[in-house]
Amino acid sequence: MIIFSSAVAGCDRISIERKAVNLARKNGRRLEIINLIDEMVKVANETNPYINPKNLPNLDIENIKVLKDHTLQRIKERVKEDPKKDYIIDGHMSFWWREGPLNIMNSKDMKVLNPTFFISVVNDPRSINNNLHKKKSWEDKAIDEYQIALWSELEAYTTDLISNSVGKRNYIIGAREDPRTLFELIYKDYKPKAYISYSIEHRKSNYEGLERFIEKIRRYLIVFNPKSVDIDAYKISADERLKNLIFNQTVRRDFHLVDQSDITIVYMSDLVYSSGVDGERMHAHFSGKKVLLYFPFERYSPFTPYFVDKMYKSEKELIEEIKRLAKVYSEGKRI
């Protein structure tokens, strides 16, 4: 099995991927990470010892394509040699080079690799920027957080286009996501996928209860958590242009998380208004997805149950329904 992992430089996807590798090892699976850029440099060094990750984008684009094609063929041969091992191929759909994108991958490349599915690992631009400053290959590059945000969205958007063109799914995963999410996407696809929707702004006092609930439902579901990407720093940003870009990207990203899930679970343990929760449950409802609402209160608006399949006052009752849906899903039926 091959999973193609797309991300921008500095995203720190290796952290969640290594944890998934460790989980695989503990469960008797063999999972290995292959970095496409490192492999391209190895191939290039056979004829040109001066090529490295830092200056690789300086090559003529046609030379980069030839180099990439040779590298993909070698990776394919390597995978064939050990069919009992699974692989995460780390790559970029593009470089951000000299103030703009430089295309790297295309649908033809993915037909060579034939990944089972794609992932796009995403992180907040500030964390990415901090990580880039620590990388020698980026020490003399001028790239700001606005450009990082553009590159990040371009990377995920291009991965969506290419994955759709070869008939495969692309899952967005936050860099701070629980590694069990990635591990289970690879090895437990019999479990339904769920997006957990809640008010991030007003639930800080009850995060422990929320996280206990998420831990319980992980037994039955593959969970995508919106807190896996931190945008708090931008809520008080003086740069309105960057702030608006991050906010708009957050909405599009969370809608993508809803779209890649089978169920949206709305967790409302506080009576506070959240435009994000409203938007997400309506998006899920209008997309034909099942929406379950935890709402432990007696009084509510006529609009509260309108955009959900069922409301639950009890966590226990909700978890029983989740268990039932997981069983239905594992039997290959629609939920």
What is the topological layout?
Layout: E1 2-6, H1 13-26, E2 31-35, H2 36-45, H3 61-81, E3 86-91, E4 94-96, E5 101-103, H4 107-113, E6 117-122, H5 125-133, H6 145-165, E7 170-174, H7 179-187, E8 193-197, H8 207-217, E9 222-224, H9 240-259, E10 263-267, H10 275-286, E11 290-294, E12 310-312, H11 315-330
User: How many distinct helices?
Assistant: 11
| CATH superfamily heading of the largest domain | P-loop containing nucleotide triphosphate hydrolases
Spans where pLDDT lies below 50 across 5 or more residues = none
Major β-sheet, in short? 5 strands, parallel
What's the number of domains? 2
Question: Which strands sit side by side, in order, in the main sheet?
Answer: 2-3-1-6-7
Helix proportion of residues, in percent? 40-55%
Proportion of residues in extended strands: 15-25%
Overview of this structure, please?
The structure is a single chain. The protein has 335 residues and is of the alpha/beta class. The chain has two domains: 188 residues, 3-Layer(aba) Sandwich (Rossmann fold); 146 residues, Rossmann fold, CATH 3.40.50. 45% of the residues lie in helices and 16% in strands. The chain contains eleven helices and twelve strands. It has a five-stranded parallel β-sheet, with helices on both faces. Strand 8, helix 8 and strand 9 form a beta-alpha-beta unit. The mean pLDDT is 92.
